């Protein structure tokens, strides 16, 4: 190889389904193969090996395999044999595709539903190339370089449009007043006089487009006209007034005119332009109206007018291609948004954070909190209309995008350095220029750690779970909180210590031990019910007050047990006074046994009115020394039997 000269070539890949699965491709070579498929079929082309870089070993499954050339790729290579039957591809050649693939000719992707070559007569899931890339919006008439690598053009990539669409924003307070207040400026700045020009052009007027007109202006004008076409007559007249008077109205007058437009039409304009923030649910609903299949007559007529206008020569072919691509991209983004709405809870405004309980009944320091919200950082760490737009600056952002829509970015743009990885379903991880990491999972998340896990968070943490949370901890659960610990439970709180399991059907038993260095305050609005299977010992080192508004019942069984071997009842011991004060009656009785009252010094019994002592059998009084009885008036004693008084001496006065 090489002794007979170096024979190189440029060609187009037409087949990559290598039966040997070596990553080879069939390539049609310029100057050697005809574009006439009847003369040289795709299946007659030689298989070309693809050269890998020195960072790729290309052996035994190591490195990046297979290669990523697709049908339609322009390539450069050489023949390693004299007969030129063993091509080797060194690389691919990017460009600006001027037309989609034509499967009727060679040097094109041969696949298509009506392709003349039977083997390739199908509707490919991915491709044909070049053409419209559904997951990105990339189309004909623009550089092969990914939109995500072309600065501001990255905002037209469907993945980024979708991310901004499903971006979780902050406090979901109704800001319709702010929207309307800013609507006049949005009209003024977005459309200017161009709204009238495009409106007249779409309606068939012969107007010329200023040479400095941007793609964004064209797109905005066409969308404005689409709104006109699908609106009711009375609404259209109001829109027309706005368009025709653009040059003469002030921003405040625009806002005033805007408020006269029906609310649903306001939403259409605001969301279609993306000039003012509004809810993503409304955006999706709007997108469904404007991108339904088949479109209504008004939208179809506008589309035909747009196509005719862009082909009229009033704008350059490059600009026309960009406008078509941008309009198609927004339509695909709307379609994607409608699909994502079914699969995700994205698009909601405001992620709420927890609030502290308001304990005004038990705490003098209780503070009533207002619920807070946090928001997802903006994609790339910037807003879509950032000025200057320094993210993804060409040629610093290095992008890889697969055929199904998987994406990686390594962005070295000065001042906007970041890394990004996304799955075609929308799940992504992005590292922003300041080191912030954003991870968003559009499906379920599973994380399995075989060893240990250690996490440190230097700042704060917010966790919002819209469903239920279950934690199973088979070992100990240790929490140490150096600040305050708040719990706010909107419904029930159920706790079981020593829960049952297979080894202990009734529960293994378990203790609950608490130590409170300060105070314990609680407020219970309803009943308290409890059962204690063992002894209760409460040691209060200071005073104790109990206030019962209703009845207070204490029932003591006096059963014999380890802690009460004699079967005793109630013992009340006071190291000081024992005072019992009752507003009404006080009754003490025993069913059987003795009632004893003994004083360590003097026993005083006093009644404010009459006192009755009524033993049902015998009354015996025993006095250790003297007995003195004083009666203020009359003392009467009546006995139905005998009365006996025995003493050594009896004095009666």
Keywords:
Nuclear Transport Factor 2, Chain: A, five-stranded mixed β-barrel, alpha+beta, rod-shaped, OB fold (Dihydrolipoamide Acetyltransferase, E2P), 653 residues, single chain, 9% strand, 10 helices
Question: Summary?
Answer:
The chain is α+β, with helices and mostly antiparallel strands. It is built from 10 helices and 12 strands.
Describe this structure in words.
By secondary structure, this protein is of the alpha+beta class. Among the domains are: 1-131, Nucleic acid-binding protein domain (OB fold (Dihydrolipoamide Acetyltransferase, E2P)); 168-348, no CATH class; 377-440, Roll (Nuclear Transport Factor 2, Chain: A). Helix content is 20%, strand content 9%. The chain contains ten helices and twelve strands. The protein has helices at 158-165, 176-190, 194-202, 215-230, 233-244, 251-260, 263-273, 280-290, 297-310, 317-343; strands at residues 7-15, 25-29, 47-50, 74-79, 87-92, 351-352, 373-374, 397-401, 407-411, 418-422, 428-431, 437-440. The strands form three sheets. The chain has a five-stranded mixed barrel with strand order 1-2-3-5-4. A five-stranded antiparallel sheet has the order 8-9-10-11-12, with no helix packed on it. The radius of gyration is 45 Å and the shape is rod-shaped. The termini are far apart.
